[in-house]
Amino acid sequence: MLLAIDVGNTNTVLGLFDGDTLADSFRIKTDPRSTADEMMLTFRGLLGGTPITGVSLCSTVPAVLHEMRLMLAKYYGDLPRILVEPGIKTGVQVLTDNPREVGADRIVNTLAAHHLYGGPCVVVDFGTSTNLDVVSASGDFLGGALAPGIQISLDALSARAAQLRKVELVRPRSVIGKNTVEALQSGALYGFAGQVDGLVDRIRTEIPGISEVIATGGLAEVVVPESRTITAHCPELTLIGLALVFLKNMGST
Fold first, then answer.
1. What is the pLDDT of residue 81?
2. Among residues 6, 105, 125, 140, which one is catalytic?
3. Strand order in the sheet with 212-216
4. Domain range annotation of the chain
5. Does the domain spanning 99-236 belong to CATH 3.30.1490.20?
6. What is the DSSP string of 216-251?
7. Is 105 in the active site?
8. Fold match between 2-83 and 99-236?
């Protein structure tokens, strides 16, 4: 099976592909202090004896990427493997001022979104930051908008305001919160849904013809029902993109 690894700032997601089918996936916290050997212990605990035939990896955390390289060389050295970085064939043209500064996950999401939904479209990735990435009709990465992520915003608010605290991000009884917890939940949930809707509306004025707005990322499932512009929810979008990149560079394995 192909092992796809998406290393994000908060979480690392592993996916096992049997051909084109995502057979299983796992989500663990990203720890920049983990060594290559510690990572492998975690992977073995999750994957068990699953036979791995190839590896496709992208990372937005340089410290983790360094250890991942060591782990892959030591434990998967005899397998075909792809690290999504400059020079790797993705089929995505990055039409920004400095293509090298665009995160590998955003490029991979662009590839998967165009493959699954066509274009033009928008990918909304609810992660450590909330990324809105615009994909052209031909599958090019046109740029996008970045905003503080939901969890970071809530953590910062509780840290800086003495009478406010961390809350579970769930739908409150009403928009008008009757207590501090519900007021925080309302502001976060409906506020971020409104932020996405407002940005998508503005993107559509610049890129006519956008029909699909695809949500992904760890907190997407909470916001999607409250958004009027999000049309699809694809939690495995990045993993699918990694599998596509592997096939483009290695062929079927």
1. 94
2. 105
3. 141-148, 129-135, 121-126, 212-216, 232-233
4. 2-83, 99-236
5. no
6. ESTTHHHHGGG-SS--EE-TTHHHHHHHHHHHHHH-
7. yes
8. yes
Identity of the residue numbered 2: L
pLDDT digit string, tens, across residues 199-241: 999 999 999 999 999 999 988 999 999 999 999 999 999 999 9
Residue 252 has pLDDT above 60, yes or no: no
With CA atoms as reference, report the closest residue to 217 among 147, 136, 123, 103. Answer: 123
Closest to 78 (Cα-Cα) out of 58, 53, 101: 53
Q: Which CATH number fits domain 2-83: 3.90.1150.10, 3.40.630.30, 1.10.10.10, 3.30.420.40?
A: 3.30.420.40
89: left (phi over 0), alpha (psi -120 to 50) or beta: beta
